[in-house]
């Protein structure tokens, strides 16, 4: 009950700042109603009576303070000793998923460093300092796996074997930016739902580091470091769907992940940030991105055509636009995936009808067109939406690397109840590199 109010108060804090556009200024009404699925739907809430709990935000304290300078309320701030341990299956399974994620990152960063030569990195515009930074990121992952292992206790997994979809430094960096993106978003999707608030605290301090890694890999790609206002969250099943295909084998006594493996969704014309023209379809997929050497003149940038070299920031704040046609390919359920192929993709949804664009605070839908069923899957097209985060603001919903899911319905979800989407997922997510 308390939690249903958290998001509204969080948004209230945003609204308190002076430069919020008029469209989302708080109204004065105190009896605003909204559906549970769409608290943003009818404008701004100053108080919420839908759950039976009411807090009237007047700007003044409404209750006596339990201790000096300590406004009443809040969770577990009464002096109780923190218990950094899962309290429920939900907690355990969420943290187990994170451990699988941290282990692949550790392996991935080390693999890249040991696979590619100094010259390979140099041709991608990355020098000894950059390699040292990747090595430090691997060390961070060592710390993260130790932390989660300590929280989970003796049943925690060990490192597994992995399979990676890259053969060049450029594609390695691109893959790292995507892995850290879903690692980050996968945690944001459940962090506030954990029963163990103490574990959530430690995980928060972990995932904020991961967020910095994601940004650094974007900078290694010459992309604008952070082209969004809000980092989005996805569900555990969505994160597991993205992660599992790259885990080839784990020791047989590894605890199983309880989350769903949705059928894979591919964006066959996903932009390639390394290509001269990122949205040119002929060089669009991760696999073909390996052929050109776009950074071959990176160190001699002046006079070169290749402007997309590693940079703190670049002027590429987005290279896709509303109306862009995405070509999607979805698999049918029933395919073995994940460690030792011991998981099977599954969907409880009907036929593919919509693309859900999960980005920033928003889940926005577009219609799937030209849906064609094949032997192992289906294909469809859809168009990039042009919505902005709020009316009257410039920031588009779709930017950065974000998530696209094929669904059978366009139900209304917001960041705190995005798991309502799980039962409607036909395939995906896929990571769309919008900018
Ligand atoms: C709220 O009340 C104030 C003072 O009465 C008024 O100036 C303002 O326009 C009202 N805002 C809205 C959104 O109704
Ligand atoms: C509450 O909302 C309803 C529906 O919008 C409106 O008709 C009514 O006047 C409001 N009541 C108060 C006290 O503002
Ligand atoms: C909130 O305000 C309403 C209307 O003034 C009042 O009836 C209610 O008791 C208040 N609730 C709390 C918790 O102060
Ligand atoms: C807040 O407190 C001040 C000082 O006691 C009082 O003057 C004011 O009316 C209060 N405002 C509200 C909205 O209760
Ligand atoms: C990883 O692969 C190696 C080499 O094939 C194999 O010996 C080892 O058992 C595998 N480990 C796991 C955990 O699957
Ligand atoms: C796109 O790929 C084709 C075929 O691999 C290659 O010849 C061409 O140079 C690439 N173009 C760009 C802009 O990378
Ligand atoms: C990049 O490729 C897209 C898709 O083919 C095309 O529409 C666009 O004009 C190209 N941009 C440039 C600068 O060549
Ligand atoms: C830049 O591209 C143009 C067109 O492809 C080409 O003619 C020119 O030689 C290139 N310049 C350099 C410095 O590579
Ligand atoms: C780009 O690199 C190639 C191969 O090293 C070299 O021949 C060419 O002169 C370079 N071009 C520029 C503009 O530096
Ligand atoms: C950045 O891009 C915008 C839009 O294309 C352009 O107007 C601006 O001059 C560019 N700025 C720099 C520093 O290149
Ligand atoms: C999606 O891409 C992966 C990797 O390239 C490939 O193995 C798989 O067959 C593709 N699935 C569909 C439905 O295109
Ligand atoms: C929560 C949120 O940001 N919702 C927005 C989603 O996008 C539509 C269309 O731009 C907005 O109207 C919503 O406010």
UniProtKB/TrEMBL annotation:
The keyword Transmembrane does not apply. InterPro entries: Rds1. The keyword Signal applies. Residues 1-17 form the signal peptide. This is Protein rds1. It comes from the Eukaryota. Keywords: Signal. It comes from Lipomyces starkeyi NRRL Y-11557.
